[in-house]
């Protein structure tokens, strides 16, 4: 019950956190009490420092200090913008530069590698939130998706068309 209350408070404040089930490891369960000099659970840590248990979390919430102490979860839209702009040329695909995990991604990798332009990839199979969120954000329902300087170029068909018309290299270099 106490753990559930702390989780509800953290979620209500949009605080980014992870958790450890102390019932899954008796050594950690007992050792953490000694390490922290705190006899009960839950125990909230921020940046490796013990904040306290439920009572402390409730006090911090009531005083308004909780929001300044705890890191906020990055909003999905901000996270997507950050990923899109991670490199001048970003390719969201199934797999990565070293190994495509679908035919379309394999084809676009071959095209990209033949341009000589440096690019980064993001494996959408590794992050379901990004995989679904980017479709909505970009208003483009399929993968791969290619971005240059934060702007969507398109998917495999668009990249093929640009290659055939000779426009791909100028687009990748941000000259269009």
UniProtKB/TrEMBL annotation:
Official protein name in the record: GLRX3 protein
NCBIfam families referenced in this protein's UniProt entry, alphabetically: Grx4 family monothiol glutaredoxin (TIGR00365)
Gene3D superfamilies assigned to the protein according to its UniProt record, in alphabetical order: Glutaredoxin
GO cellular component, one term: cytosol
Gene: Glrx3
Keyword Electron transport: no
InterPro entries, A to Z: Glutaredoxin (IPR002109), GRX_PICOT-like (IPR033658), Monothiol_GRX-rel (IPR004480), Thioredoxin-like_sf (IPR036249)
Assigned keywords, A-Z: Iron, Iron-sulfur, Metal-binding
Spans through the membrane: none
Listed GO MF terms: iron-sulfur cluster binding; metal ion binding
Domain named Glutaredoxin: residues: 1-51, 89-153
Record GO biological process: intracellular iron ion homeostasis
Organism in which the protein naturally occurs: Xiphorhynchus elegans (elegant woodcreeper)
């Amino acid at each position: 019950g106490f753990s559930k209350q702390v989780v509800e408070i953290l979620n209500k404040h949009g605080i980014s956190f992870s958790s450890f089930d102390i019932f899954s490891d008796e050594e950690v369960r007992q050792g953490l009490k000694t390490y922290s000099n705190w006899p009960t659970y839950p125990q909230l840590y921020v940046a490796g420092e013990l904040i306290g248990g439920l009572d402390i979390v409730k006090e911090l919430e009531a005083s308004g200090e909780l929001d300044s102490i705890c890191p906020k979860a990055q909003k999905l839209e901000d996270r997507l913008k950050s990923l899109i702009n991670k490199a001048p040329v970003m390719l969201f695909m199934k797999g990565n530069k070293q190994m495509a995990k679908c035919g379309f991604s394999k084809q676009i990798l071959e095209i990209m590698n033949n341009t000589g332009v440096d690019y980064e990839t993001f494996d959408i199979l590794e992050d379901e939130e990004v995989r679904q969120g980017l479709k909505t954000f970009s208003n483009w329902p399929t993968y791969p998706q290619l971005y240059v300087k934060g702007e969507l170029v398109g998917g495999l068909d668009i990249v093929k068309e640009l290659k055939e018309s000779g426009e791909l290299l100028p687009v990748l270099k941000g000259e269009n």
